[in-house]
Automatic annotation (TrEMBL):
It comes from Agromyces tardus. Residues 13-238 form the ABC transporter domain. The keyword ATP-binding applies. This is ABC transporter ATP-binding protein. It is a peripheral membrane protein.
C-alpha cells in the first residue's frame, strides 16, 4: 500500500537556520525555507552556490553543521528505511550499474518499495521503450540520465528530489520530461528541483528560490521572483541618427505610440521585451557580484 502521511507537519520540507561548513569553508550559510506538500519548488543558483549540499542534507546523504531540518516530518539525519521509502532521489551524478538492462535495473529497485509503479509504465514515461532490454552501460549520457529519473520515480515517492535532472537531455526529451513531472504533480507529488535551465524552472516551478554564496537571496512564485521592478518591460529602438535607445516603462504601448508620433512612422529596430525568469535571475546574480564565469555557466 502507498504510505500515507501520518505526521501532522503541514510542510513537506521545513528548514531553519541551516548551515554546512566543509573544513573552514561555509557552503550553506543560514537557510530558512518551507516547501508545502504537493508543491514544486525550483532551487536556482550558480555553480558552487550550495544547492546540492542543501538537497543532499535533506535527502540524508550529508550531515548538517547546524540548524533544524524536517523532511516529511522526520529529521533526515535520523531517517530510517520507512522514511527513505517515501522519497525519490535523482542525484546530480548517479552510479547505477552498467551491467544490467534498463528493465532489470528498474525491476530490481521496484522490489525495494512497498507500492512501486509498473516497470514498463515507468520505462515508457521516460521514453526508453526501445532501450528496455539494453544494458545501461551501452546507453548514451542522456539516456542514462533518463534511467536515473526512472529510478527516482519507480517507488511512487511522496517527495521527489531532482538535482539537475535534464542535464544532457535533448530538447525533445526535456519536453517529455516536463510532461512527466506535470503528471507527478497532478498526482500530488512534492518536488524539489535544482536546475540551471531557467525555462525549466519557469515551466515546472510553483515557486523558486535563488541561492547565492550559501544564502537564499530571494524566494517567490515564478511570477514574483526578483520583485515587480525587475519585471518592468524594456522598449528598445534606434533613433534616426542610428543611436540605440532603451527605456524601461510599465506602459510600453504609450511609449511606442509617442515614438511613432514623434518619428512620423515605425521606429527602427523596435523591440518590446518582458524580462524572462532568466533575465531576472541574471539581474539578481549580477547584483550580488558573483563572478562572470559562474553567471555564464549558470545561464548556459
Ligand atoms: N565534499 C565537499 N568537501 C568540501 N567542499 C565541498 C564539498 N562538496 C561541496 N563543497 C563546496 O561547497 C560549495 C557548495 O557546493 P554545492 O555542490 O552545494 O554547490 P551547487 O550549488 O550544487 O553547485 P553546482 O551548480 O555546480 O552543482 C562549493 O564551494 C563546493 O566547492
Amino acid at each position: 500500500m502507498h504510505t500515507t502521511t501520518t505526521d501532522d507537519t503541514p510542510a513537506a520540507v521545513r528548514i531553519r537556520g541551516l548551515r554546512k561548513v566543509y573544513g573552514g569553508a561555509v557552503a550553506v550559510d543560514g537557510i530558512d525555507l518551507d516547501i508545502a506538500r504537493g508543491e514544486t519548488f525550483a532551487l536556482l543558483g550558480p555553480n558552487g552556490a550550495g544547492k546540492s549540499t542543501t538537497i543532499e542534507i535533506l535527502e540524508g546523504y550529508r550531515l548538517r553543521t547546524s540548524g533544524e531540518v524536517s523532511v516529511l516530518g522526520v529529521d533526515p539525519a535520523h531517517g530510517g528505511l520507512d522514511w527513505k521509502g517515501r522519497l525519490g532521489i535523482v542525484l546530480q551524478s548517479a552510479a547505477e550499474s552498467g551491467l544490467y538492462t534498463v528493465r532489470e535495473q528498474l525491476a530490481h529497485f521496484a522490489k525495494l518499495y512497498p507500492s512501486p509503479r509498473d516497470v514498463d509504465e515507468v520505462i515508457a514515461a521516460v521514453g526508453l521503450e526501445s532501450k528496455a532490454g539494453t544494458r545501461i552501460g551501452r546507453l548514451s549520457g542522456g539516456q542514462r540520465r533518463r534511467v536515473d529519473v526512472a529510478l527516482g520515480i519507480i517507488g511512487r515517492p511522496e517527495l521527489l528530489f531532482l538535482d539537475e535532472p535534464t542535464t544532457g537531455f535533448d530538447p525533445e526529451a526535456r519536453r517529455e520530461f516536463w510532461s512527466l513531472i506535470r503528471t507527478l504533480k497532478d498526482e500530488g507529488t512534492t518536488i524539489l528541483l535544482t536546475t540551471h535551465y531557467l525555462d525549466e524552472a519557469a515551466q515546472l516551478g510553483d515557486r523558486a528560490g535563488v541561492i547565492l554564496g550559501g544564502r537564499l537571496v530571494d524566494v517567490g512564485t515564478v511570477e514574483e521572483l526578483g520583485g515587480a521592478e525587475a519585471r518592468v518591460p524594456i522598449v528598445r529602438w534606434r533613433d534616426p541618427d542610428g543611436g540605440p535607445r532603451e527605456v524601461r516603462t510599465a506602459r510600453p504601448a504609450e511609449l511606442v505610440a509617442s515614438l511613432v508620433a514623434r518619428l512620423g512612422g515605425e521606429p527602427a529596430g523596435l523591440e518590446v521585451i518582458r524580462p524572462s525568469l532568466e533575465d531576472i535571475y541574471l539581474q539578481l546574480v549580477r547584483a550580488a557580484g558573483v563572478d562572470a564565469l559562474d553567471i555564464e555557466e549558470a545561464a548556459a
